[in-house]
């Protein structure tokens, strides 16, 4: 047993956490969630009552959920990896701002797009189609906002941060985002990193 256990699901947001762990180079165990029912077991709900992956269990005690929060915690634990720029710098503030923007806007829109029935009390085919349509519009708008901030090829210029990996992950869920030149260039550069491409393949991204 290692110091970290990642609960992960193919195609899910646990990809960016696995990429971060691989970038850090720390050993970790992996527990695969194969279907949503496994998230509803008492054992899993004790880890994350929200019944969602990713979850990162640290042998030292903490159980972490919420993708952006896990990445910030890993950056605090392993600052030498530079998942994010150093504390107190304007570059870090910008990277964290966009990381939170994506986690708070684009990720939830992707969930509305793929699981519209979960976002309406009494669904109908028409209502769910409307939710999907609006979610796609929201993602188009928010990726366009993000793209204007990208210096190229990465958000902050020549140096990749975990915010770029997060953006690439979300873009894999929303094909129109990859038509934006800034995002297309970012995704291809992000995938040149072997740690990221390993996690990407493991999670079945790019299929
Ligand atoms: N805000 C959460 C969202 C996590 C989330 O919604 N994860 C999805 C997979 S991408 C999930 O576990 N859904 C439950 C399910 O598939 O039943 C985060 O950033 O970690």
Structure, described:
The structure is a single chain. The chain is α+β, with helices and mostly antiparallel strands. The chain folds into 2 domains: 4-81, Glutaredoxin, CATH 3.40.30.10; 90-193, Glutathione S-transferase Yfyf (Class Pi), Chain A, domain 2, CATH 1.20.1050.10. Helix content is 53%, strand content 8%. It contains 8 helices and 4 strands, in the order βαβαββαααααα. It has a 4-stranded mixed beta sheet with strand order 2-1-3-4, with helices on one face. It is globular, with a radius of gyration of 17 Å. It starts with a strand and ends in a 5-residue tail after the last helix. This is Glutathione S-transferase family protein. It comes from Hoeflea ulvae. Pfam families: GST_N_2.
Question: What is the share of helical residues?
Answer: 40-55%
Structural class: alpha+beta
The CATH topology annotation of the largest domain reads as Glutathione S-transferase Yfyf (Class Pi), Chain A, domain 2
Q: Residue ranges: pLDDT <50 for 5 or more in a row?
A: none
- Tell me the Rg in angstroms: 17 Å
**Ions, cofactors and other bound molecules:** glutathione
Strand line-up in the sheet with most strands: 2-1-3-4
CATH architecture of the largest domain, please? Answer: Up-down Bundle
Span between termini: 31 Å
Characteristics:
alpha+beta, Glutaredoxin, 4 strands, binds glutathione, Glutathione S-transferase Yfyf (Class Pi), Chain A, domain 2, 207 residues, single chain, 4-stranded mixed sheet
